[in-house]
């Protein structure tokens, strides 16, 4: 008798998981059932497709089989006893010995699964958190000291409650994120990536440095679906980076541009990254409010990236694609236009059901399956449908497993009170200076994001740093969006810029140089979050739309000029004086009030930087006369 392989078992498990998750869209499933079943499926697939590395395959297979069995037992037990756990009083109904052991095993499984998927860094953070939870009463001094947890308390608090493994991060992934990832999987399997790439090429491919501009447009579209910087780099970069190099972009520049374009997808509505859904929960607002708030900052992000790409192309005189290499726009609209319908469905449903995200996600998936069947180019057969279900499950484990560990870290920070103490300390250092506090919060988010998934970095920042901004008087949604923004762009921040490393592998470039170029080109995007603090109206839903729109237009001009200064080219190459005045003037223009005298100063500085360019540019034609 021939037994199914690991891959076949994972494939079958993934399809079953997808069907189970889809049922949550039209039936009421208690969280006590949904969360353990979601984690169980994720752990099973993880241990199947990421086997324990050993020279003896039989030992590896036996060990993984044991881990899978343990994952099933500890999660099925919670699933079967969820009603008792909801109403359980720790004093009246103490844990049984085996429940304590189950808790320790659950923590171990989450740590081991993260080690296999993400490597050692995130796992080490989890071990540090657990050690701190147990040894907190032995730490000298007052800041880090807390009562400490015994192994009994550890199991009770982090396994049998919603304050640890099964906390908000896992809840959000299981209820909303899985379905949106499944939607992305359907689009990818239907060939939507190629269709979006072709459409972007037909729009911008003929311009100077066209392939880089295609990368900005296509990576924004695709990144808004999958919400993962690294996945976006690998998906679109495999096409755009070689094209950029073909028309003259240096390897490091091509990798840096793709890194920037792909990273922004996590903050681009309507479908942002998993962290955005968690932000809605932690900030106590609807996801519609989060998506609405992110609109102007996200557009400015891509406007800044596009500006950098444009001025590099002008500076280096890079050509676009020839007419023979360009697909016809009218034909691409006919082929690809229907693929935008699911996004319209999401926007319309969010407007009608701002708090029913599970329902929105379910109908987004169903509408996507229907829409891709309308055209021959995107139609899926039975095999394609099954593969999309499997792909959705496979893509989700990279969100589910880290979310379980993020819940553990979140629980420890809440129990120990370290997050509250840290935020209070930031306020004490910054006093009433919101910008100083904001700089410290940004640094914390960037450091936490180095080597960590965006979700984990944002959650930790949301507990330890973001409350400092709220205490200082920043509106809650802006404070959380500020922290989310820096957690996202940590992906392009050296020395551990994961998205840049992925891009450098495709570009065949030096990873550190690629990361540094992405950082330099991305300097404009580091400024945008501070704009939200100084001019809150630019965040839709917070202030006046008309005033916010004026600030947005002013910011767009300033970001474009800033990008010019960073690249060192406007009409021609900029001198040091011109770059300095242009960057200084654009910063003043960006942050000045609508009726401020700073606008006049900014115009003077910008004019000083551009006037010389215009005069020198016209000199040859004047001499010819």
What's the short version?
By secondary structure, this protein is mainly α.
Give the overall shape.
globular
Q: What structural class do the secondary elements suggest?
A: mainly alpha
Total beta strand runs? 0
How much helix is in the residues? over 70%
Q: Write down the overall mean pLDDT.
A: 85
Number of helices: 30
> Can you write the helix and strand succession as a string?
HHHHHHHHHHHHHHHHHHHHHHHHHHHHHH
The largest sheet is: none
The CA-CA distance between the termini, in Å, is 91 Å
Poorly predicted segments: 621-625
Proportion of residues in β-strands: under 5%
Task: Please tell me how large the radius of gyration is.
Answer: 25 Å
Explain what the structure shows.
There is one protein chain. The protein has about 625 residues and is mainly α. Among the domains are: about 170-405, no CATH class; about 545-625. About 75% of the residues lie in helices and about 0% in strands. It has helices at about 5-25, 30-50, 55-80, 80-85, 95-120, 120-135, 150-160, 170-190, 190-205, 210-225, 230-245, 250-265, 275-285, 285-295, 295-315, 330-335, 340-350, 355-370, 380-415, 420-430, 435-450, 455-465, 465-470, 475-490, 500-505, 510-520, 525-535, 545-565, 575-590, 600-625. The longest helix is centred in the middle third of the chain and has 35 residues, at about 380-415. The protein is globular, with a radius of gyration of 25 Å. Mean pLDDT is about 85; it is low at about 620-625.
